[in-house]
Amino acid sequence: MPDYLANQIAAGEVVQRPDSVIKELVENSIDAGATEIAVFVKNAGKQLIHILDNGKGISEEDMPLAVKRHATSKILSQQDLECIRSFGFRGEALASIASVANVEIRSKTKEAELGCKLLSKPNVEPEIEPMKMENGTQIFVRNLFYNVPARRKFLRSNITEFKHISETMTKFAISHNDKRFTFYDDNNLIFDVPPQDLKDRLLALMGTDISGKLLPVEYSNAIIKITGFVGTPELAKKNTGAKYFFLNGRSIISKSLAYAVFLSFENLIDRSFKPFYVLKIELDPHRVDINVHPQKHEVKFDDEALVHNAVKTATMQALQKNSILTDLEILTKKSNSPIEKVYHNEDDSNDFLLVNTGTGEIVGDSEFSNTNPSYGKSKGYSGNYSGGYSNKKEDFWNKGSESKSDFSKEISAYEEVFGNIESQTETPQGTIELADIDKVTEGQVWQFSSDYMLFKFNDNLVLLDILKSRQRILYEKQLKRIKKRQSISQKLLFPIMVQLPISKKVVLDEILDEIEKFGFGVRPVRENFELFELPPEIDESSAANVFESIIDSYHEYKLLRTGDLLDNLAVAIAMQSYYPKNENMSALEMTSLVKELLECSMPNNCPRGRKTMVIMGEKNLREMLR
Ligand code: ADP
Ligand code: MG
């Protein structure tokens, strides 16, 4: 078989569309140690793909080999093959591309005085000429598939092909944030990003309005290291959205890992939404087989469960660490609102949010207003990114993704909180120790109806859903008890009969052992069951109904949720328990509710993912009243 035919066949595997060419070429530039890479495309790459790098270049002797099949300078031995660190290793990309397009390579090593230029045409020995140029490599790929009409026809519209390209460029820019990337489409600058830390890179690529909504992920053990960001629940989107995994610098897709992230978010976002994540995984290359897919997207881990669990834990921790309690703590710590000094009550450390309430009496109104004028003014992410942008960039991103306004409109505590923190660093404020926070009593609590209450925390107005908060609290309380193996229950003087249809008996059978851990005592009595012990939160009078609803919900959640049995049961109990409505909660009841909620690991949402509270800073209020 002639070489060029073999190449064309290989090209079928390697080169599917302009985007695949770009992927191979940029990988080569990275392998060549480039710190600056520029990509220009014309007609979504169908007409021209031009890439420039400042890497180590190709010497004149090696130049003819670059487009020869199985000529790679990267693999030296079998051992290398087992432990692949460079992107390319097959030595067939350039040869394949050259078999289906006109390829021109210009390159100069720093040792050479002159560079050289290779023009490749299918089926002809390439010619090489010297030329004057800078160190590095430039590759032009013209008229892709000009000689394979069937494949050329197969290409999609420019918009679609360009979408693929921009997605690939975005991935490179994220995975190699230490390099400068410049990306042009038909003379329009799409992005030009300098070496920068990952967060700045993401803001530069995705827009600064996500600034306060990125939660850092940092996790490592002896085997695996995971860094990056997850978005706060409000960054989750219906269909699109950023979902990126990188393994040892390479973009990968993995259903198993996506699922691991999903599990962390499960109770925080609506099921139809997808979380935002950018996660970089570092793992000994020996533990990975990247050779599974010719395009190297999909990988196999030698211990799938290990990686899965690490990702789940890493993202879970990021979400927990950044739950609202932490935010408020930081806020309190950084602020010097006089309230903290005034309401320093050491005896009442349980009621740290206790403030006046039922009476409507405003405690220290004069001090509250204007305590911290800098908050209102803060614009967390006014930070200008210094890299050049054209207006086109905005168009491009808007075209490519769902409108951002969906979530930017939403009232955002994080934005406010993080924004504040950033502006605080410019104007240092007094601090109080974190330990003091429990002793601080401040703000007001006010019950609006049997369903809602309001309270003030620092400069935020918080609207709280009483029922959902109670559900969250009970859910976490139960799981904590189970973890500590302290099931609490009250013995009933008169056991309660529960009659169940056969379908529910089957379900009960499944959970019988576990439900005891929650403090239920259940035993079969002839055809039926009786409850002889109840958890303290379950009221005797409603117990039979609640118990049946728990069985129903558990059954439903088992189908809908992915949590384990205990978790599903905990949600079922929390959601089905009867919480008596009370229009007139006492100040103490209200403040302890708030405190218990804020002590939860994920206080912002009920166990089924709905919001427990809305936090409004001045900025949000101003927006609402515009
Ligand atoms: P592979 O990357 O698998 O080695 P390629 O066909 O992609 O195979 O590239 C062939 C060879 O050409 C590489 O091994 C490398 O020596 C050289 N090469 C390609 N692109 C560049 C570049 N941008 N800078 C320096 N060398 C390059
Ligand atoms: Mg390569």
Distance between the termini: 73 Å
Strand content: 15-25%
Shape: elongated
Ligand set:
adenosine-5'-diphosphate, magnesium ion
Strand adjacency order, main sheet: 5-4-3-6-2-1-7-8
Write the layout of secondary structure elements.
Blueprint: H1 3-14, H2 18-31, E1 36-42, E2 48-53, H3 63-66, H4 78-82, H5 93-100, E3 102-108, E4 115-120, E5 127-131, E6 136-142, H6 149-154, H7 158-175, E7 180-185, E8 188-193, H8 198-206, E9 214-220, E10 224-231, E11 243-247, E12 250-252, H9 255-265, E13 277-283, E14 288-289, E15 300-301, H10 304-321, H11 324-334, H12 339-342, H13 365-368, H14 373-377, H15 391-400, H16 405-408, H17 413-426, E16 445-447, E17 452-457, E18 460-465, H18 466-483, E19 490-498, H19 502-517, E20 521-525, E21 528-534, H20 543-560, H21 565-576, H22 587-598, E22 613-616, H23 618-624
The structure holds adenosine-5'-diphosphate (ADP) and magnesium ion.
Q: Which short descriptors sum up this protein?
A:
about 20% strand, binds magnesium ion, 5-stranded mixed beta sheet, about 40% helix, about 625 residues, binds adenosine-5'-diphosphate
